[in-house]
Amino acid sequence: MSSLFKREIKDQWYIKYNNNGYPHVQQGFVLPPNRFEEFDPFLLMAEDWFKRGTFSDHPHRGFQTITYVIDGRLEHIDNHGGHSVLEAGDVQYMNAGSGARHAEEAVDNDIAHTLQLWLNLPQSLKNTKTSYQNVYLEDVPCIKVEGGELKVYSGEIAGDKGPMNSLVPITMTEISLASGATYKHILPENHNAFVYVLSGELELGESKTSLKKTGAATLTFNENGKNESEFNIHANSRAKILVYSGVPLREEIVAYGPFVLNSMEEVQQAYRDFHAGKFGPPAE
C-alpha cells in the first residue's frame, strides 16, 4: 500500500491590518484579493471588526460567501425576508448566484469580529438561485482526537460530515489542540488548501514550519491525484487553526466590486441589472 501524499507549507504570511475607524474598526486580508489563480477555488478572505452600519444593504453575483463569527453577534438581513442572528462559532453560507441583496450588521452596540471567505462558482452555476444557510455551532459535529478536538463545518473529515451544503464541495474544519498535541489532518489530495491560525503557535507539515496567531499559509497538493493526503499539525502551545480545502475550477475570473464573473461584459451587465432593480428591493 502506497503512503499518503504528505502536505507541506507552500507559502506563508501574517495578516496586515488597517485601522479604519468607526464604524469599520479594523480589517485585514487573510487571503489577499489579487492571487485568484493561486487560491482557486477561493477568491479572498477578509477578517473584520465592525460596528453597525458598516455592511448595510449591498448586492452580490457569481460567487459564494462563508462567514465565520469569531466574536460578537452578526445580524443577517436579506431582501427575501430572511433574518437571523449568528454568534461566536456560527457560520453563514450564502450562494449569491444570479443576484443577492443583503446586509450583514453588528447587533446593538456589539463589535462583530468575523472571517468572510469568498468561494468562486463555476460558470455553469453562476446563474443559480440565491440561497442562505445558517450553520449553528450546536449543529456542527465535534470529534474528539488525542489532545484536542475537530469541528467539521463542511465536507467529510475523520468519518463525520459537516452540515454546510456548498454548491462547490469544500472542507472547512476548526482544529483545537492542547500544548504538545499532534494531529494528522486527512484531506483529498486534489484539493487546494489553506490554513489560518486563530490562536497559539503550531508546527505545520513535514518541515515543521512555525506559524502563530494571525498567520496564514497555502499547502502543497496534487491536482491530478485521486487519493487522500495527510497534513501534520503539532501544537507548541494551546492552539486553534482553521483549515479550508476545495478543488480548483481553473476558469477565467473577472472580479469587480461585489461581482465575480467570467468576463468584464458580464460584470457590466451585473451593474446594469442592479441599477435597473433586477436584484429586488433593499434589504432592511
Automatic annotation (TrEMBL):
<dbReference type="InterPro" id="IPR014710">
    <property type="entry name" value="RmlC-like_jellyroll"/>
</dbReference>
<feature type="domain" description="Pirin N-terminal">
    <location>
        <begin position="48"/>
        <end position="119"/>
    </location>
</feature>
<dbReference type="InterPro" id="IPR008778">
    <property type="entry name" value="Pirin_C_dom"/>
</dbReference>
<protein>
    <submittedName>
        <fullName>Pirin family protein</fullName>
    </submittedName>
</protein>
<dbReference type="InterPro" id="IPR011051">
    <property type="entry name" value="RmlC_Cupin_sf"/>
</dbReference>
<dbReference type="Pfam" id="PF05726">
    <property type="entry name" value="Pirin_C"/>
</dbReference>
<feature type="binding site">
    <location>
        <position position="102"/>
    </location>
    <ligand>
        <name>Fe cation</name>
    </ligand>
</feature>
<feature type="binding site">
    <location>
        <position position="60"/>
    </location>
    <ligand>
        <name>Fe cation</name>
    </ligand>
</feature>
<feature type="binding site">
    <location>
        <position position="58"/>
    </location>
    <ligand>
        <name>Fe cation</name>
    </ligand>
</feature>
<dbReference type="GO" id="GO:0046872">
    <property type="term" value="F:metal ion binding"/>
</dbReference>
<keyword id="KW-0479">Metal-binding</keyword>
<comment type="similarity">
    <text>Belongs to the pirin family.</text>
</comment>
<feature type="domain" description="Pirin C-terminal">
    <location>
        <begin position="173"/>
        <end position="280"/>
    </location>
</feature>
<keyword id="KW-0408">Iron</keyword>
<feature type="binding site">
    <location>
        <position position="104"/>
    </location>
    <ligand>
        <name>Fe cation</name>
    </ligand>
</feature>
<dbReference type="InterPro" id="IPR003829">
    <property type="entry name" value="Pirin_N_dom"/>
</dbReference>
<dbReference type="Pfam" id="PF02678">
    <property type="entry name" value="Pirin"/>
</dbReference>
<dbReference type="InterPro" id="IPR012093">
    <property type="entry name" value="Pirin"/>
</dbReference>
